[in-house]
Amino acid sequence: MMGSRLDRRSMLKGTAALGAVAIACRRAFTQGAPAAHTAAVGSAAPLPTRGEFLVRGATVITMDPALGDFPAGDVHV
Q1: Among the four 17, 52, 55, 57, which has the fewest Cβ within 10 Å?
Q2: φ/ψ (deg, to 5) at 76
Q3: Hey, what long-range contacts does 19-26 have (CB within 8 A, 24 or more apart)?
Q4: Tens of pLDDT along 3-56?
């Protein structure tokens, strides 16, 4: 091994990139689904209305090394 160190931010960036690729591939294959396949799957239940919520006291991991991480932060979504 070359002795390179994989830090947490690099791991998060790689995981986010893999997730984006997985979603893009899934959408590419499901957009052209034949009508027989969509009828067999059935209709999905309607999504609930969107709202806001607050996560309190969570560990917030930033992607900015200048900010660092917050061991007890609040996130408004």
Answers
A1: 52
A2: -95, 125
A3: none
A4: 567 788 888 888 888 888 888 776 666 555 555 555 555 567 887 787 888 889
